[in-house]
Request: fold
Amino acid sequence: MRRIQFTQTQDDAGIDMTPMLDVVFIMLIFFIVSTSFVRESGIEVNRPSSQTSSEQTQSVVMIAISAQGQIWLDRKATDVRMVRPVLERLRAEQPGLSVVVQADSKSTTGDLVQLIDQLRLAGVQYTVATKSSD
Reply:
């Protein structure tokens, strides 16, 4: 009599993670590409209040003037003469560049005027940030 021996091979019943990882990487790439980055000023300022203020929903670059007259751009203290070249470079990268100026209520008008002159020479649109006086 002839015996037939059946052997069972055990298949891997594991889950293939490759398709899930592909989806996760595609989503990561999508979020990186679709994110708009905001350049923060780097310091907290006490903005003056205004009765005619309105909220701006889209701002790209924030520049702050401290109470001592220091200019802050991209979280670094900078000289007012360096604002123009930096913004011209950024405007070349992003043609629709807009700037929000956050001037401390104790900063001088002269510091604000010097900064606005640099913004105009750089050819960018700007807004001066205030807080509403409710």
